[in-house]
Design goal:
The complex is a heterotetramer, with two copies of chain A and two copies of chain B.
Chain A: E1 2-11, H1 15-28, E2 32-38, E3 45-55, E4 66-71, H2 74-80, E5 84-92, H3 94-97, E6 106-108, H4 111-119, H5 125-137, H6 142-151, H7 157-177, E7 194-197, H8 198-208, E8 211-216, H9 223-236, E9 239-242, H10 246-258, E10 262-267, H11 269-285, E11 289-295, H12 312-317, E12 326-328, H13 333-350, E13 353-359, H14 360-364, E14 366-369, H15 386-390, E15 419-421, H16 435-455, E16 461-464, E17 470-475, H17 479-489, E18 495-500, E19 502-504, H18 514-520, E20 523-528, H19 534-543, E21 549-552, H20 561-571
Parallel strand pairs in A: 1-4, 4-5, 5-6, 8-9, 8-10, 10-11, 11-13, 12-13, 17-18, 17-20, 20-21
Antiparallel strand pairs in A: 1-3, 2-3, 2-14, 7-14, 12-19, 16-18
Helix pairs in contact in A: 1-5, 4-5, 4-7, 5-7, 8-9, 8-13, 10-11, 17-20
Chain B: H1 21-34, E1 42-46, E2 61-64, H2 70-80, E3 85-91, H3 92-98, H4 100-109, E4 114-119, H5 154-160, E5 165-170, H6 174-186, E6 191-196, H7 208-214, E7 215-217, H8 227-235, E8 241-248, H9 276-281
Parallel strand pairs in B: 1-2, 1-3, 3-4, 4-6, 5-6, 7-8
Antiparallel strand pairs in B: 5-8
Classes of the chains: A alpha/beta, B alpha/beta.
Bound molecules: thiamine diphosphate (2 copies), iron/sulfur cluster (SF4) (2 copies) and magnesium ion (2 copies).
Chain lengths: 572, 284, 284, 572
């Protein structure tokens, strides 16, 4: 069993609420869930949709075909009806869209009039719609009712009751009328699942890592990280500040980090472009910082609400001058959660900027999991505080050490002063100009540290046939789709996936043998959501390996499973 | 009892002999010592420029960051540790040119940071281009037709933005400057202290003599809580240039409005939360 | 005789029904048509935000650039072609937040560019975060404790910077808005027209009704050349909110001070010089 | 004959004037001249020096050893005396430095008292010093006198006379007292030379290309470009605007370019970091712009007045999203002049940003030439103007064309409107969100253009033995030093240089065979002024070729000829 439900309509019609609730119902019913969102850069009108796939087997991508379309307006039917599967159904409100569609696949449920009849207003139409989907699927209504009770707790019993009434009516109506529905959804086995998207996972990872300061300027599709952290600010003692611009955002975070707290900022490509000077400042002053860059298609404003992976090379080399950094590109919310934790640990341990490269596809896609293992989360306080700091005879912020790591004290917690400088500086942090100190500092700050950092980087994740002839290579948000592609195609071909989420520094090829696998493969295909094949280029700069097969998509939309499979089969 | 000024001793300044920055440096040390603020209790945040080098010439916590970005860094530090005295030391190009946007928003926030601007009406370190406060007509190698823009009046702008402390000092009037620095430091809220600073090498217009002929101290009867009067006073610039506290108010301070900072500085709260399970549960 | 308004017809707006932007758009078309400015004689420069989309919804030369960077682009265009009418169309976040620095310096330059700010006191396009002009206490998803900063008063700031034309309009008072637009366009020098614009989706505080209860037109007796009066008037914000031309002066215009632009627009002067040998000779 | 003269002293003592005049005298005497400058980031005090090499054979680098040191203070003697050649001399004013040095190599010329005696003030001390150098070298005084007359024309006869008197006195004094001087400078053969530094050459190239708008924010070491152009603004009808920050600088230039003029900006790494969003805007709106990035050592403020080549990878990939660009890195003022012209031509032809990557070493170094060939300068006006524009039936700024180049009209010159957008847009320039238009636009803007642009890129310059076993590879300002190194070492080894000045897009390896030479070499050494070997990495990403020999210098100082030769001989 593997169904795709799409809720489609105009911005402002509440399709995100319907989609969000349905996903939650499926996850609580212990199905595997994967959702993705397609929305325009406008607040009302236009055409958006919310796509949910749920199954009793793991799912980690979307498909082109739709089993159940919830159409909130007429345009949605026109746009999506060709995507229906053989027994696919459309549910809609004929009186609302002012047209009745003929054909077995159309189910007219009068969302509005049911709502109005029962509650006196059309406000609960979406509740009716949501419940009718559950009816069509032949699922239970209990879980949805539970969700209604939770979400409207603050609004009072009356609202809860009205919603429950509306949901029951929609549900019953659908069951009664949907004679053509052939859906068969087993009752859940296993435990209810956690459902989380990429932005939330980064925010959660940050809080779990002791992040106490988040300054940012709103920018789609990264704003979700800020919103999540802000929603927990009070409870978890976090300062979240909306800066006047991105330059300020990164400099504030650096100030907070200097003063002794774990600090982070987040943005998308255009905002990151403005942070580049600050990134270089972090490098020079050895101030830890974590930066989430949630990509959207560029250049410039591009397609603000869509997805792309075209900022990779930019991030690898952003900033004037040379300084160490780490770049992670999680492939799933789970990876985002753990890698954000790792980002904070490495940032603090090596006193460097760590970049988390995500994209709109990952940011807005929900994945379901049994749970996260919190014992995997680490926390070490790498700073010199209080007594330990006071006890020092002398203190030099940029002390030359063999491993390049200097003691990082919290200013004010001891009598010593903490000095750092964006100019080249001596061990004390004071400005210098001589060649000798310069060389020592570069060797310490860049060379010594970079080698140790490389040891911290895990090799790519290899999945599938150990002796695969076809290796699909990808990074970041390509993880889910590549994994399922391998699952599908492995019955036909000796195929595997190599997924990079720890991008920079490049995992040591002396210590890990993944390049051997790539060289042994008959066909290595680099699959990326950009036009120029940035990862392929990066891999070549690190290893000399040249892909002769590449699949690139740059229309701002994620790959659909069947689409990618088709493209792969075409070229192999 | 003032603290021993040797406590603040730093590197030898690389400024030109006669530069107005020397008096600002010495006055700042005096002010801190008289206020008994020890070097580790204050953080100086500076940008790039001659002014930006000041923190290296004394001893105290220092973040010498980028040109124009003193205020965001200072804001971050203050939010992470509101028990720390945070002073941003900036040049006029630094803070009114490159960093102009941050000034507007730091004033709006009313974060309890002190901003001391070494206003020499010129870009010193980059060798004499005109700055946002340069007088119209000042010719430089990058402005062959002279500076064509109206000089920025930072004080009038600050008053318009309802800045909670707005003052002007003069580098060569050290006693008064010290008083203004102390007042700014003691004020609760954002304080802008614009310090007229002769640049003996590049600014051949606004010299010690030019300033001396024009500068006067606001007298005691001046009511610095009257915003309209403050605006008029801030507009005075010509034959007579007022120094003193032009405007002050007692509005609420930014960091005091953040509930999270009520009990202790953020930096003391560095451990990750223990009840992560609670957070996770919401996703089920 | 006004021009046919169909001339300016553009794409269908993607704004929310009821949004204040519709009246601004229509009013701008009216103003241009009454001033007989043809689509190719005007360039609209916009940033990113709901306001920034305006130029797509009409027909005219358009540079829809980056969030916050309307004024530098507009300045470049005006300097390259000072015969072109250049209007920058910006949001409050765009122009007072991200682009605050450029506003200060465009005012200082007094470049003959018109800035129309769609001030809805909110970030519309990014879904309702508070903006620099949001009232204190406005809660949003990114400001869980409410906006803690004092709202920017762009008019007071502009008056403090001696901006040569400072006005406030209201989207729903179209007749008056048209008058203000025409005055701004006809003014020689930089003109800031801040337009209060209800955002029906996200700003539930500053609604049509909220504005209607407070807004009044400055009457004819108001002397908009008196800077101090202008400052006081600009500070009015509460029960009564003035609209009209708050301040104007006739100071010299930036591009007229540049000798190079005396004879013709820069763009007409695009050929490389013929006497390159003269240049080379200096290096011998 | 090959002499190195160094003028050393504090900032503010006028050593730049002395150095500038001496170089000019040497160039006018028809010698080959190469100078470089070493100065601190301060206005007075500290230690600076100005190094001049002149010879009857071409010179294009500096050497460690000094033949004649003009020491303006005591510290200069201490710092530089160990660098003296066997018969090297120091000239100084013992009464001014308050110490008399013993030894044949020291010549005390009382600069100050001679000046005071003759002119009543010490103001002409530097004139005395300058002339004394000419005396020591046994050169003629005529040329210097000519220079005095030119430079003080505006100050009047009296000043000219005083300077000439002072110079004669200094000259005579030196001739009389410098019995140990063994310099032998032939009287010039050939024609007087042109003397120009990298910044001036870029400025000159810009003016020659019809650049009419330059907006920038001052930043060492790029300010010289702005100063040069500003000095010609009035005469050549150029608007030069000092912007409030670098973000404004690039956006102003884009505005001016959109409105119909050739526009440029210039900065150093930190300022460029702030321009990155604007760069991406140029890419999306297809607005031509030329940007000079004059590197200094980073990260952050780094060493503001020194040299490094560490922004290469940053520039190649700067900006979010994907768009075409060209990156040039001239190796000499001559290359800077011609490549700046090419930059303007390509920027306009392809409607793209073109970056000129220079550095402090090139910016402040003067080279002498017989002249520049102005007929090599091209100018084509690629814009639609006036009648041509008016005659069109319709106009679409971003028209889809096969070669990707759309008509670029000057707004206002016809009734059609010119519309562009930082969002993804249609042919008219209006905002769109659909996948199909997106793909078409990327194909047009990026893919179609990039291939044609690559055809415009010349292969690297190959110099030396055709069948070299040792190939020195470098880029940008390494040109002069590598060339001379080859000259020196070619008597000992089969050696050559491969110099890249047209960096990006990478010259086509299908059409040019330079990679064959590299592969055939027994030793290919990549020589760069940075710590991580950025060019080597870039070359590998393009070709797979991996250097096993690299020489990297990152102390902020340029290579000295003998130093580099030593390092090469050590590793081969
Ligand atoms: C982003 C950036 N742009 C430009 C510079 C170059 N720069 C250094 S100091 C300075 C201006 C100095 O003027 P001001 O701020 O008034 O300080 P002063 O030297 O006069 O004290 C500039 C433009 C820089 N360091 N960083
Ligand atoms: C550099 C950059 N940062 C952030 C954004 C995201 N962004 C787009 S519009 C906007 C704010 C919109 O608010 P406003 O300027 O007031 O315009 P409105 O939509 O309210 O008209 C933001 C933050 C962006 N496009 N570019
Ligand atoms: S250049 Fe001016 S500001 Fe800088 S140190 Fe010299 S006198 Fe002071
Ligand atoms: S969100 Fe607000 S500003 Fe934007 S279109 Fe809707 S009503 Fe207008
Ligand atoms: Mg200054
Ligand atoms: Mg707004």
């Amino acid at each position: 069993m593997d169904y795709t439900v799409v809720i489609a309509g105009e911005a402002g019609q509440g399709l995100q609420t319907i989609g969000g609730i349905l996903s939650k119902v499926f996850a609580r019913s212990s199905f595997h869930v994967f959702t993705h969102q397609d929305y325009m850069s406008r607040i009302r009108g236009g055409h958006n949709f919310y796509q949910i796939r749920f199954s009793d087997k793991p799912v980690s991508s979307s498909k082109s075909r739709i089993d159940l379309l919830v159409a909130l307006n007429r345009e949605s039917i026109e746009i999506h009806k060709d995507r229906l599967t053989e027994y696919g159904m459309v549910v809609y409100d004929a009186s609302y869209v002012k047209k009745t569609y003929q054909g077995d696949e159309f189910l007219d449920v009068p969302f509005e009039s049911i709502s109005r009849e029962l509650t006196g207003s059309s406000l609960m139409s979406n509740t009716v719609a949501t419940a009718s989907v559950l009816g069509m699927l032949g699922m239970d209504l209990n879980i949805y009712e539970g969700i209604i009770k939770e979400s409207f707790k603050k609004k009072g019993e009356d609202i809860i009751k009205k919603n429950i009434d509306a949901s029951r009516a929609g549900y019953d109506y659908a069951i009664k009328k949907c004679l053509k529905c052939r859906f068969s959804v087993p009752s859940g086995v296993g435990r209810p699942g956690l459902l989380i998207n990429g932005n939330q996972a980064i925010g959660l990872g940050a809080i779990a890592s002791g992040c106490k300061f988040y300054s940012a300027y709103p920018m789609t599709p990264s704003t979700g990280v800020m919103i999540y952290i802000a929603s927990k600010a009070k409870e978890y003692g976090i300062v979240v500040e909306q800066a006047e611009d991105e330059i300020s955002a990164i400099n504030m975070a650096l100030g907070a980090s200097f003063a002794g707290v774990r600090a982070m900022t987040g943005t998308s490509g255009g905002g990151f472009a403005l942070m580049v000077e600050g990134l270089s400042l972090a490098g020079m002053t050895e101030t830890p910082i974590v930066i989430a860059e949630v990509q959207r298609p560029g250049p410039a404003t591009g397609l603000p609400t869509r997805t792309e992976q075209a900022d990779l090379l930019f991030l690898l080399y952003a900033g004037h001058g040379e300084f160490p950094r780490v770049v992670f590109a999680p492939g799933s919310p789970e990876q985002a959660f753990y890698l954000t934790n790792r980002a904070f640990e490495l940032a603090e341990k090596y006193q460097i900027p760590v970049l988390i490269l995500s994209d709109q596809y990952l940011a807005d896609s929900q994945w379901s999991y049994e749970g996260f293992d919190l014992s995997e989360i680490s926390f070490t306080d790498y700073r010199l505080r209080g007594r330990e700091f006071q006890a020092l005879k002398q203190y030099k912020r940029h002390l030359l050490t063999e491993d390049g790591i200097s003691p990082m004290a919290v200013p004010g917690e001891g009598e010593h002063v903490v000095v750092t400088d964006s100019d080249e500086h001596d061990e004390d942090g004071h400005i210098i100009e001589d060649a000798e100190t310069r060389v020592k500092m570069v060797n310490k700050r860049l060379k010594a540290k970079m080698e140790s950092i490389r040891q911290e980087i895990s090799p790519p994740l290899y999945y599938g046939d150990e002796r695969a002839e076809i290796v699909l290579v990808g990074w970041g948000s390509m993880y889910g789709i590549l994994k399922e592609t391998v699952d599908v195609l492995s019955s036909k071909y000796p195929i595997s996936m190599m997924h990079f989420s720890q991008i920079y520094p490049f995992p040591s090829i002396k210590e890990h043998d993944f390049m051997e696998r790539l060289k042994m493969a008959q066909k290595a295909i680099c699959i990326e959501q950009n036009a120029t094949g940035q990862f392929a280029r990066y891999l070549r700069s690190e290893t000399g390996f040249d892909f002769d097969l590449k699949i690139n998509k740059y229309d701002g939309r994620p790959f659909m499973l069947d689409e990618l499979i088709g493209q792969i089969e075409e070229i192999i | 009892m003032s603290l021993d000024r040797e406590l603040y001793k730093g590197q030898t300044p690389a400024w030109c002999p006669g530069c107005g920055n020397f008096s600002i440096l010495e006055t700042l040390k005096e002010a801190l010592s008289e206020l008994q603020i020890r070097p580790h209790q204050v953080t100086l945040v500076s940008g790039i420029g001659q002014a930006g080098k000041l923190p290296h010439y004394m001893r105290c916590n220092t973040f010498n960051g980028l040109h124009g970005r003193t205020l965001p860094v200072a804001t971050g530090i203050k939010l992470a540790n509101h028990e720390m005295l945070v002073i941003a030391v900036a040049g006029d190009g630094d803070c009114y040119g490159e960093g102009g946007n941050h000034l507007i928003h730091a004033i709006r926030r009313n974060i309890n940071v002190k901003l001391f601007v070494h206003n020499n009406q010129i870009y010193g370190l980059t060798k004499g281009q005109s700055s946002p406060t340069s007088l119209q007509g000042m010719v430089s190698k990058t402005q062959p037709f002279g500076s064509l823009s109206e000089p920025l009046n930072p004080l009038a702008m600050a008053v318009a933005l309802d800045c909670s402390f707005v003052a002007r000092g003069y580098a060569a009037d050290r006693e008064y400057l010290k008083y203004l620095m102390k007042e700014a430091i003691n004020h609760r809220g954002f304080a802008l202290l614009d310090i007229l600073q002769p640049c003996v090498t590049f600014n051949k217009i606004n010299t010690y003599q030019w300033y001396a002929e024009r500068i006067y101290r606001l007298d005691d009867s001046y009511n610095n809580t009257d915003r309209k009067l403050a605006f008029e006073t801030a507009l005075q610039w010509g034959d007579r240039i007022p120094t003193g506290i032009i405007f002050r108010n007692n509005k609420a301070v930014f960091e005091e409005k953040i509930p999270v900072l009520k009990e202790r500085p953020l930096k003391n709260n560095f451990n990750p939360p223990e009840d992560l399970q609670t957070l996770l549960k919401e996703f089920y």
